[in-house]
Amino acid sequence: MVVSTVLQAAQGSLATASTSRLGSAGFHKEGLFGAQCRHRSIGVVGTRRSLSIRASSDMNSKDHEVSPNVLTKILQTCATCVAVTAALLTPLSATASDVAFQRGPAISELSVLISGPPIKDANALLRYALPIQNKPIKEVQKSLEEITEEMKVPGEKALGPVERSVRQAARVFNQNKAQILADIAPAKKQEAEQLLSSLEDGLQDYQKQLETKDRSTVFPKQKELLRLVGNIEEAMVSKFPFEIPEEFANRPLLKGRATLEMKVNVKDNPNVKDAVLQIVVDGYNAPVTAGNFVDLVQRKFYDGMEIQRADGFVVQTGDPEGPADGFVDPATGKVRTVPLEIMVDGEKEPIYGATLEELGKYKATTTLPFNAFGTMAMAREEFDNDSGSSQVFWLLKESELTPSSANILDGRYTVFGYVTENEELLADFKVGDVIESIRVVNGLENLVNPSY
User: Fold this and answer.
1) In this entry, which stretches build a coiled coil (predicted)?
2) How many angstroms separate the CA atoms of 258 and 377, rounded?
3) Which of 348, 350, 425, 427 is most buried, judged by most C-beta within 10 A?
4) Which neighbouring-strand residues pair with 53?
5) Do the Cβ atoms of 120 and 399 come closer than 8 Å?
6) CATH T-level topology, domain 249-448
7) 272 or 78: whose pLDDT is higher?
8) Rounded distance, CA 73 to CA 335, Å?
C-alpha cells in the first residue's frame, strides 16, 4: 500500500462521517497506547488514564467536524500520521505486501517499512546488543540461531540443515578458539575457559544427538548452547563502554546487566496462580533508566503493587497511590524522573532527551528494539521526553511486519530490558493482579550510586 492509497482509503473511510462529531480525537483506536498524535507527536502517557492513538488537527469547523480534505493535508505533512492511519485501515490478517509502504512524493522521508524479518527472540536481541566485536563467536551464535528457522520445516527434513548448522558452529569455534579467548576480559579468563570447554563439549554432544533424528532434542540443546555463547560474549566486556554524562553521573546507574525475578499473583485464573518471570535489564545501553529501575526494585517499590493496565497491547504498572505519577524521592520530596535514553546502532553512547524523529534520524536502528514479546520500556508523559519515573510497561506483541525503527515505538521510548523466561504469562495478566515481589537474582554489583 503506497502513501496515495492510504490517503484515498482514509478519505473514503471519512466520506460518510465528514459531518459527524468525532470529538477532539479525530481517529481513535482503543487498545493501542501512544496517546495522541498531533501531527508529529505520539507519546506514551505515564498515567492510568486510557491510552490510545489519535490523530487530530487544528480545526476551524464547528464541533470539530473533520473533512477528508483536512485529513489529506494532515497525512501529507506527517509521516507518523500516515503510519498510524495505515495501521488503522489495514485488516489484521493483511499480508506484508498489503501493508508495506513505498517511497512516494508526498512524504520523501518515509522509507520502506518492510526490510526483512526482525529478530524477535529476547535473548538473541540481548546478545546482539552487547558492546563486543569478536567475529568468530558471533558466527557461532548465528549458526546456532539459524536452527530456529530451519526447524519450521516439518518432520525429519529439517534435521539435515540443522546438522549442517551445528557442524558449521563447531568448525568456526574449533578453528578460532584462541581468538575468542583472546577477547575475554582479563578478570574473567578463568570463568570463560570453563564456558569455552562446556561449549566445545556441548557442540560435540549436539552432533551426536542429531544422529538419532529425534526432533524433541533440538530446541533444548540449542537453548543450552546459546546460553553459553551469551555468557562467553558477556565475559568479553572488560569495562563499561562509555562515560555517563555529568548531569546524570550521580544518579543510580546500572553499569552492566542484571537479572530479575518477578512474581505475580494472577487472580481469577485457574490455569495460572503464581506467575514467575525472568527479566534481564540492560545497563550497557540504558544505564540511567535501568539503574533507576533496579534501585526502585531494591527499595521494594513494586512489591504489593497491582497491574494497572492490561489491554492486550501492553501490561503496565508503577503508578503509586496518591497524586504523584511516579516515585517520590523521600530525600527531596519530589518525583524522581529519568531522561529519554536511546542507544542507536553504531553509536558509542546513548542519545538523551530527544526522540530519533526529533533529531531527524528516521532510518536509525535502535540497539534495543521493540521486537520481542515482553519488551520492557519506560512510560512517560506525552509531550515531555524526560518525564519517565517509575511506570513501566511490557509490550504484548512481536514485530511481525514492522522491523526495528520503522514503527511508532522505536526511538521514542526507552527500552531497557526484556522478559527472557515465561514471557507468555504476560498475556494472562489482568488489572488488579498483584506483583508479589521483584528481586535481583544476578548483577546487583553493577548498580552504582544506589539511593536506598
Assistant:
1) 189-216
2) 15
3) 350
4) 29
5) yes
6) Cyclophilin (2.40.100)
7) 272
8) 40
User: 445 Cβ partners below 8 Å, 6+ apart?
Assistant: 256
Distances (CA, A) of 247 to 149, 207, 240, 352, 377: 45, 52, 18, 11, 22
Contacts with 129 (C-beta within 8 Å, 6 or more apart), sequence order:
282, 284, 285, 343, 367, 368
* Separation between Cα atoms, residue 101 and residue 84, nearest integer Å: 12
Residue 209's alpha-carbon distances to 58, 142, 162, 166, 220, in angstroms, are: 65, 20, 11, 11, 11
Q: Which residue has the cell 533444548?
A: 220
d(CA 192, CA 178): 12
- In whole angstroms, give the CA distance from residue 320 to residue 438: 16
Looking at residue 83, its pLDDT comes to 43
Q: Would you say the CATH fold of 249-448 matches that of 132-234? A: no
- Mean pLDDT to the nearest integer, 391-413: 79
Q: Which three three-digit cell numbers place residue 95?
A: 499480508
Specify the pairing of strand 309-310 against strand 314-317.
Answer: antiparallel
Task: Give CA torsion, residues 426, 41, 382, 306, to 10 deg.
Answer: -10
Phi, psi of 170 (to 5 degrees): -65, -40
Q: Cell digits for 99?
A: 501493508
Residue scoring higher pLDDT (400 or 102): 400
